[in-house]
Amino acid sequence: MVTTKRYHLAQRPEGVPDDDTFDLREVDLDDPAGGEALVKIRYLSVDPYMRGRMDAGESYADPWAVGDPLRGAAVGEVVDEASTEFDAGDTVVGNMAWAEYHLADAADLQRIETGALPVSTALGVVGMPGRTAYFGTREVLEPRAGDTVVVSAAAGAVGSVVGQLAKLQGATVVGFAGSDEKCEVVEDEFGFDACINYEATDDYVAVLADAAPEGVDGYFDNVGGPITDAVFTHLNVDARVAVCGQIALYNAEETPTGPRKLGKLIETRARVQGLLVGDFAPRFEQATADLAEWVAAGDIQFRETVTEGLENAPDAFLGLFEGENVGKQVVKVGE
Amino acid sequence: MVTTKRYHLAQRPEGVPDDDTFDLREVDLDDPAGGEALVKIRYLSVDPYMRGRMDAGESYADPWAVGDPLRGAAVGEVVDEASTEFDAGDTVVGNMAWAEYHLADAADLQRIETGALPVSTALGVVGMPGRTAYFGTREVLEPRAGDTVVVSAAAGAVGSVVGQLAKLQGATVVGFAGSDEKCEVVEDEFGFDACINYEATDDYVAVLADAAPEGVDGYFDNVGGPITDAVFTHLNVDARVAVCGQIALYNAEETPTGPRKLGKLIETRARVQGLLVGDFAPRFEQATADLAEWVAAGDIQFRETVTEGLENAPDAFLGLFEGENVGKQVVKVGE
What sections of the sequence does the record tag as coiled-coil (chains A, B) (predicted)? Predict the structure, then answer.
């Protein structure tokens, strides 16, 4: 038996989650029974989609029940197991609780080898965010040489990879990010052609007209709201829009409203399509291998923001909505 | 030389066009010069998209200049020509002025043979509206057997054909129309499985839940606004939305606003695509032939609303926005 600290959903938040949302408990975990593995967690992923799971209503992820442990992708080390394919010492990734230890069905874990990369990248550039970028770019955005592609949340775990993949296809890539410091990273490290600091202007339509004078052929949307409205204004004929996230709206207490934009689609015959990486599960292995190769070759750069300590996981999560992270936000729980 | 009455754009309307929008002039037309044909117009088409051409701003059709003749698809008879492939007496369709006579470049005219059908159908079920339905259904909506398809403006020239084509593919088809009388036509003549009179309820979400209990796999949108919001609420995974028109918004004086719906696309991975029939011009001949065959075989039913007299063309046009037409609205100008 092991005792672990673990976060539970204390109550459903109205609007922005706060201290009353998170309940840190101390719980005892049973020893692994057949087919189970006990994992000592090293890194937790916090992701914007988790906000949707805190609500009772419909989202693209099932809601958590009040009192349930909060869960997400995590990397850890198997410390005990019963009748599984894993050995103590194996490094694994899977959907686990926000906790120090997690008792997992072994079927939900995958052994990982990140080689020269830190194991935390299994939650980022070679993990779900990287694969989201990979399939979203290939299957929905379809950037072509000469295209102008716009990426919102360009400094984030997904957006940073999308922009680099679009560059590899020969597109001109413009990002939106929330500070001058982030824009420097987006331009200098991730190699975007331009980056707009959306905190420095209210007139996104005008700044985008300057940054994308030939209009927008592809838009990868992680944020929604006014930035997305501005990009729609500049869509070209036959543009593609991949809708991956709407982080600007996730904490809204009322149904968010905005200008109606479907008429723009008639004018441009643009295609707007939602994206959920789980649909591509049969192709994850290839995507992960491709991403790892491109990172190793230096074709894809990445950043991580590491928050230390399980007790700081709620702050790390809430920081996503304040744009505090550059690249993938993870929480370091244990060595 | 011939003298004709002809409508010109008197001034750009703010909101709903009115008498001050339309200027009926008496003008003299020259005799045809080389490559021109003088056409005596029999039927004029009035279409919702023309509202966009009255504004200075962007639309999917180029704006008219103030003082320009109003133009649209028309059917007529060649009465004089100079060095063209046409003979006096030929029945032709083309883009012509709202007038009794029009001096056309012969290159802009096509000879038509509607057989047993009235020539006015070249403006409707076997004309541009029919082809819009044809390509929109095949290329964007992609109805499959077992799908539930929703069509707004179901009694209209485009919607009525879309629904029948979706039925031929084995879909269950639900229409929205603006009166009980129209819904009777939609169900009994056009063969839709159900029709919702949107004037009889404000709770489109609830009535659609009843009419489409398995959700919506395909939506063909001619109207925009709250009906479209309600349909989005019911979209199924992998749904397709064809955006063909937004007539509910065309007379808006302010930018129309509404609930933001892109998050629904993540949940469903739905694809939303704008549609402009002109993109399919290389395939018009086949489409027209197919439609004519299906109409002749009784597989596609159609209706026309005929307004008599050129002087009533503005009222016929404005009636589109009041939902006064059933099927294709045309104006009969001459015998």
Answer: none
